[in-house]
Task: inverse folding
């Protein structure tokens, strides 16, 4: 993943600061712009045909949420941002999907970057998607890399009027979007927890090579989530504790609770990382124990056959004067002696607890 990001970053080399250049996976989906305009009494939802229509929105009448799906379309992002006076450096960060979660203050608005983690249907790997938020007076703009998200519960609360989101300001809406992103990490961690337990049992009972691959996959997923959450912790802490413009005291209380959730998720992540590491240790120990048992059996077999090989070797020599060769019962006697030697050695190994 890192190499792919570095290869796409080459397009930015030599460009002037503030030049929007898309960095990330190339998307071919059509850009989609949806708008929610609401207050305590009504909520209107519609889709805009052109990014230029954003400039005509009546922000004085209600609170507005603009959601943009598809930041690979740089012209769409630039048109929307320029309609609201957003700085070119912010536009550059929006289309660069390799940003670290952060929050920045500008004149008249706040800009934040978060990482939304989800596991799409029929896919095994977790996808990390960048979500950029702009908080202005009476307006929230969210930018996503692609269509499909985890914001549907927020949309349903706006449509039905449940909860207090329609009675509060845009800062509370921004909190709700952040809260939806953070809460979804719990769902992913629950899925990971369901995979760790069986892996531990298989690592003890039947350590197959597939277990090592599954453990490595879990380690990568946990590392991805950790890289997304640690800087998000700093971001939420700043919004919840510092005097940040456009964030009211009423919303700051909810952000402090969100900060507690982020800390809790990070603690769970660290616990899971230790469990996965210990599962790998169990797997390696089981493999080593199985190999030791195999080597013990082979060593016992080889040890038993050493004296038998000696006897067979002695009587396999072509000396003329070897009186035992002329005895009538020499062959069965030799086999009996060899069986007796093997029996005595097996009994000795058993008394020592080696067998």
Result:
């Amino acid at each position: 993943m890192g190499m792919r990001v570095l290869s796409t970053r080459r397009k930015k080399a030599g460009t002037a600061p503030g030049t929007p250049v898309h960095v990330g996976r190339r998307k071919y989906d059509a850009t989609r712009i949806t708008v929610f305009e609401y207050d305590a009494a009504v909520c209107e939802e519609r889709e805009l045909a052109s990014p230029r229509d954003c400039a005509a929105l009546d922000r004085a009448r209600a609170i507005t949420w603009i959601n943009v799906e598809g930041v690979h379309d740089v012209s769409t992002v630039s048109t929307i941002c320029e309609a609201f006076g957003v700085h070119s450096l912010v536009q550059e960060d929006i289309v660069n999907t390799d940003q670290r979660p952060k929050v920045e203050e500008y004149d008249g608005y706040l800009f934040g970057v978060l990482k939304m983690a989800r596991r799409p249907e029929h896919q095994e790997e977790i996808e990390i998607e960048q979500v950029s938020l702009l908080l202005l007076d009476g307006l929230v703009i969210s930018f996503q890399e692609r269509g499909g998200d985890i914001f549907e519960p927020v949309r349903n609360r706006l449509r039905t009027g449940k909860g207090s989101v329609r009675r509060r300001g845009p800062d509370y809406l921004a909190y709700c979007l952040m809260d939806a992103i953070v809460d979804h990490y719990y769902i992913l961690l629950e899925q990971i927890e369901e995979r760790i337990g069986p892996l531990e049992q298989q690592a003890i009972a039947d350590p197959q090579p597939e277990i090592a691959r599954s453990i490595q996959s879990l380690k990568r997923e946990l590392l991805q989530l950790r890289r997304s959450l640690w800087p998000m912790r700093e971001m939420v802490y700043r919004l919840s504790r510092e005097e940040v413009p456009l964030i009211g005291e009423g919303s700051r209380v909810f952000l402090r609770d969100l900060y507690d959730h982020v800390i809790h998720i990070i603690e769970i992540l660290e616990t899971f990382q230790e469990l996965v590491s210990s599962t790998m240790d169990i797997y390696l120990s089981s493999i080593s124990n199985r190999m030791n048992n195999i080597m013990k059996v082979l060593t016992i077999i080889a040890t038993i056959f050493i004296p038998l090989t000696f006897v067979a070797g002695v009587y396999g020599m072509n000396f003329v004067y070897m009186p035992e060769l002329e005895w009538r019962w020499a062959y069965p006697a030799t086999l009996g002696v060899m069986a007796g030697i093997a029996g005595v050695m097996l009994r000795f190994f058993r008394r020592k607890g080696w067998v």
